[in-house]
Write a structure and sequence with these properties.
With 233 residues, the protein is of the alpha/beta class. It has one domain (4-228): Rossmann fold (3-Layer(aba) Sandwich). It has a seven-stranded parallel beta sheet with strand order 3-2-1-4-5-6-7, sandwiched between helices. The protein contains seven helices and seven strands; from the N terminus they run βαββαβαβααβααβ. The protein is globular and about 50 Å long.
Length: 233
Amino acid sequence: MSKTVLITGASGGIGYEIAKVFYKDGYNLILTYNKHKIKDVFEKKAEFIKCDMSNEDEILNLCERIKKEKIDVLINNAGVSNYKLLTDTDVKDYDNVFDVNMKAAYIITKEVLKGMIRRKSGRIINISSIWGISGASMEVLYSASKAALIGFSKALSKEVGPSGITVNAIAAGVIDTKMNEMFSDEEMEEIKRETSLMKIGNAADIANMCLYLSGEGGDFITGQVITIDGGFI
């Protein structure tokens, strides 16, 4: 019987690549999107749900729709950036970043866990960032939210491990997606020079690790922060 994966933020670069990798591996897909519809190359194996991850009511509606689904893998991928000096941010910025990057993951995970605990199996993968480990200038709110997601992953892994559920975080480095369009070509070249492998990552690097953690290779991996950054930090 095919397994089912729920991927949030599946219309973006990383989320869409994760969806393609799991589709190729035979999973049924539940994919959320907000402003941009997802290109449908998944035949009849995908369900698309529009959900604004900054809107608690929409998240609760999502949870209501999936409560009877047997979700084997949850990938909390939806995220927003905030590229400003801290002194230029306001409480609205703070709320938006933490609502999308942390609160949404908390609400959805809590709902999905009910079935996983009942079945005593499941995989949860939270897409964090290297800035959640090291911090980044001009990205204080983003860094803090991704650090929170790491703490959430580590603590939850200890709580649900006895139920046969693994929880891990992926600390993504600089990946070639629209989220990094605010960097100039010169800045991207500087990032490459500071990276051991002398290149920018791509979405497939993250997607392939998600699939690995969801398969037999991830059976004994939990509570970990797996850094995929080409040696940047």
